[in-house]
Every structure is written in C-alpha cells, then in structure tokens.
Amino acid sequence: MKRFVAAACAATVALVGAAGAQAAPRVTGTAVVDFDHNLQFPRNKQNEPSITRDPVTGALIVGANDEFSLSLCPGTTAPLASPCPFTPGAPISAFYRSTDNGKTWSGGYLPAFDTIGRASGGDPSLDTGPRRCADGRTFSWACGSTVYYASLADPFPDFAGEQVTVSRSYDDGATWGAPVAATSTDNKSDFDDHEWIAVDKGAASPFFGRLYLFWADYCNTCAGNGGVKLFVASSGDEGRTWTKALQVSGAAFNLVQGQTETGQIVVSGDGTVEAFWTAHADSKGKFPSTQVVVDSRDGGKTFSAPIPIEGVIDYPLTGTPFDVVDLFNRVPGMSARVDCYPHPAADPASARVFAVWCDFTGGVGTVRGAYSDDGVHWTSLGTVAQVPGRNVFFPAIDVSPRGLVVAGFDALTAPPAGDPFQTGVQVYDYYVVQGGPGGFTAPLRVSPASSNPEASGYNSLQEQFIGDYTDLAAGPTSSYLAWTDASNAAVCPAVSAYRSQVYARSKTAVAPNPDLVCTTGFGNTDTVVAAVAN
Asked: What CATH number is attached to the domain comprising 394?
C-alpha cells in the first residue's frame, strides 16, 4: 500500500494576465501509486496514467501501463535487437484506487482478459458516470456511479495487433467486470491505438449517461504513420454493447498534406460530443498544422466536418539524431517521443469546453489553449503557461465543479543552442496552473524532485520513454495530478553508450542486458499522483 508524503515544495504565484484575484494552488501531498517495489527493468517501468474521481464518493481511480508482470531481460547478441522483449500474454493495464483522498492506494491488474482471448495492452483512459438504474433505461447518480476503463487488448488470434476494450466497476475499482470489445475496426491490416473515453454527465443532456470512445486506426502495412483514421463509437448500456465505428476524419499522409494525428474526446454540459485532433500534423507544404474539432448533437450518430480551432507548431519530427530509430516529435534535449495534439475538458456547470496543447512557436515550448461555448466558435486563451528556460510537453486539463480550469504539464530544461539534441543532461518536472479566460496563475512545480529522462527506456533501450500523456481530475477543493516520474530512476552508462552508437547509425551495436550491467534503478519510471488544493 502506498501513502502520501507531505509536499515540501512551495511557490509564490501571481495571476498571469488576470482580470481579478485567483488563489494560488498549493501542493498538499504526493504518492507513488504503482507496485514495482524496486524490481529490475522492465518490471519497474510504468507510464501513461489516466485518473478519474467519483463525484459521489470522492474515490480516486488511476490506470497506467505497468510492467511488473513481464519477465526479466533475457539479453541479446543480435545487433540492434531488443534485449527485453515483451512477454507474450503478460498483462499491462493496471489500476490503483484510493478512498481517502489519495492518502493510501491499492490495486492490481484489470481482470478477465482471458475470457476474450486477449491480454491487456495498456494505454488507459478512465472516466466516471452515473449508474444505470434498475429499470434498465434511466441513468442517475442516485443509483450509483460507474467507473469505465478503456484499454488496448492484444493479440488477435491470428494477428499481433490491438483492439480497444472497456471494463466497468460499480465499486470504485474494488472489482471489475470482464472487458468488452468496443471497436469494430479490427482486421489483419490495421490496429487500434490511442483510445480516449468520455461519459455524458450533463444533467440537462438528452443523452445523460451515454458513453463515448474515440480512437485511432493505424494501417499496419503503410509507410510511416500513413493511413491514420479516427473513429467514434458509443454505448447506451454502460459499455455492454457498442455502436458500429463511425469515421470522423479523413486518412491521408504525405509531406505536403501532413497526417491526421490522434487526439481526445469530451462531452459538454449540454450533451454535445466533441472529438479533437491535429490536422495536417507535421506538414511540409502549404497546409499548416491545425487543432480541429468535430461535434455531434445527436448522441454520436453524426458528426460535423472538422472545425478549426487554432494553428499549432509541434516539436521537430525530423532532423534529430533519433531519426535513425523512428520518426516521432521530440522536445529538444530528449529522445522520448511527444505530441502536441489537443486535450479537452468540459465545464460541468455549463456548455463551455476548454482545450490545451503544447506549442513550439519561436523555438519555445509553451502551453496554449482555447475555449468555446458552442463547439463551433473558439476563443484563444493565448499562452496558458510557460516556464523560463524549459520546454513544456504532455499537458492535461480538467475543470472543477465551480468552474476553475486546472492544467498540468511536464517541462524539460532547455539544452544549449549549439547542441539541441544532447541527452542525459536535461531534467523535467511536473507543474500546475489554474484560472480561466481571465488568466492563469504562474506555474507551480508539483514534482518533489526532478526526473532525468535518460534513466528511462523503451524495452529495446534505443531511446528514452516516458509514455504519451499525463492526466488530472479536478474536484471541488482539490485537484489530483497524475504523471510519469523518473526521479527515482538511475542513468545506466552502458545503456547511454549503446544509444550513442545507435544514434551514430551503427549497424553492429549490440544492446547490453540492463539487468546485468545497470543498477536496479535504471528504467524505474513511476506513476505519481499529487494533491493540489484549489
């Protein structure tokens, strides 16, 4: 069982561009909530947390990729091969729960994936909604709460791809029902990924209680990330059955048009479903990368054409030493992948929806944002947050019951201008700001200690890896921020030396076995939750 520790960090904050006074956020505690217990790599690797708060009970439920079920690294003698392959059939999707405002935590792996012939594959997304009542039609908080956990599931019986499933719990994660296949895009040439889930919690919505799933379908045989298509499905019976996948995006990729990049989904207070992504991501031609949204006002049956919100400059996709391994956007000074797609949140007391994203305009990484009261007309929030001398990434957002917008994000120290992609030196921390259209507080550092991403790793060891996102849940008086933390991880010189060979395009480099040549701390990324008084 994990416990909160009192936070030692504090900061004096001022409202940025605000019209009125805004109370400063204050960290009241942090906790490591995963279960690696000082295990060796890759069993000590956790990332990609998602968090939800039950508004009826106040319970907190977190999901994350957790690899403590994997076998230790067998090592390899083959050049550029992985010394730590994933263990076939081992679960990845873990849950953690707290019923005392985050002071103590317990949990384990999502159960019953064997009943559908798959193993949980991670990429969690969680949300909480009203429970369906005994009449089988009505949803009401008076009938209880339902916690939903969307997860990847793999493999298919004859294809090492992935599908999205949804599990549900009626007791705040103490027990879980068997997962239900939610996507209908599975076939031998595609795989589902990057799912996000949202429940209609609008008291006046005609679709109150309805559950929505948004995901990306990737072409397994296309060059690069070609053929990416985005889909939505919905469920009116707590995820027992799902509508057929409805495509809401196009699918084109070339250097002129760019690609469709994945995003997230939210339901506004009036029941409008809004799905967000980056259009023309990484375009090298006349089509600028743009944050877009599509909306549905009929319970997910139909969606609008993409509506532009604002342009975005993502972190570099190419021109880094890490191109030799794969093409992902990178924050200068880090080989771990990042993306600047939009992250939305709905105001529970109105139809207003907010979205935030990272932006690298002018070579400085900031959090930018926008909001809309109708899903069509968007007002820029400008720069929501920036940290001097650092580049931000992995923003997350939520809106408290009293309308306070809370945004969390990582920020990495900037490398020297003459060596923008050196690694092993830069560190990142997690921060929070809060406010609204009138302005936001200055960033408050939430993480008690800094993290060096060089101490993290893919199982292949060729690059750093800290997942793809962070998350937070804003309650009436406190917000709960979840991120991947590497402050307890240790850099391994043998791994760093191997990475240097790989980035130099060596064809003969052989990865070391980290379980033999590194300290136990190598790769120890943790799921950490902080409570912040708002």
From this structure: 2.120.10.10
